[in-house]
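Reply to dn_fold:

You asked what the input looked like. This is it:
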Amino acid sequence: MLQSEKQSLIRFLIIYLTSTIFLFSIASWIFYTSSKKNILEKQQQSLKYEFQNILSTIRNLHQSNDKILYYPDSQEYKSAMFDLDKEYIFGSFDKDISYDYRDKEVLIYKEKVEPYYLGCAYLLLAKDIDYSDIFKLKKMVVFMLFIAILFFSILGYFLGKLFVAPMKGSIEKMNQFIQDTTHELNTPISTILTNIEMLDTFHPELSSIDEFSRIEIASRTLSRIYDDLSYLNLNHKYHREIVSVDMGEFLEQRVLYFQSIAKLKSIDIELKVEESITLEIDKNDAIRLVDNLLSNAIKYNKMAGKVIITLNQYALSVEDSGIGIANSELNLIKKRFHRANSSEGGFGIGLDIVNQVIHYYNFKLEIDSTQNMGTKIKVIW
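and this is what came back:
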């Protein structure tokens, strides 16, 4: 799966799962709170039944002729009697409590007693909340939520695959077109370059003719485009041979290669190079890195503009005096087929290739640009 497909699929899954889980979580919470309320209401109802039992016992005690009264006691329920002023009389609590007794862990039920028995005007009952059913409810809701997330994740993945299928087909067609085009360009470009080199060797006087110079520039441009397209197609199979490259000497060669192209726009290329700077890199990767930076610096420069190439032991920078890049485009220009400015043509693959090379060698890319002022691209190693 291509990077663009992965990104689209991930974005779809994030939006789909976030919204689905959010809605399902709300539904689960509503179900949980409603079921918990029912459980507590059932436990509260048992207090009402117990109230009647205790009231009956108190009534019997009131009517009894026994000298010793046995107040009803229970391990599950606690109760207390209060007079008309709501003052504590007696109860089965461990200590005296007030009529306004409250506890988050305890269910409370109190009611006025009429007629009064044993001076009791109010009776208060309390029972510890039984959390066993609530705990079972929590486990069930969490389990159902987990099952739902798993189900919707699998469903979302297959829906996402269907979602990106049209884009995948378009990308495959585009890649196939590029591959076929690249294959067809190979022979004519090689033939043109070979014949130009032969003419340059046997007829050096032709190099002074403008028409011949334009043919040479166009051929080199085609050759570079061909190399870039081949790299995009074969990048995953490309075998790299890492060698020590003298970057100063290498840059001089690449500047010489681009001099004829820069001359068409009267662009001056200035080279500021520290001596003895070597880099462990594949030679072809170095060519792709530098050529794409130089090509963009010339292509998007102004007439009679300037390109400054700076090399030191920490970084390589290419600065131009061109049209610049809008701030809104800075995060997009490294994406394949994206062009910040369509007036100069191109495929929008140059910085994508630069970015791939940089990622492979764990370099760092910095882009500083101001519209109508110029752009400075820095590769830090």
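The two ends are 29 Å apart (CA to CA).
Hope that clears it up.
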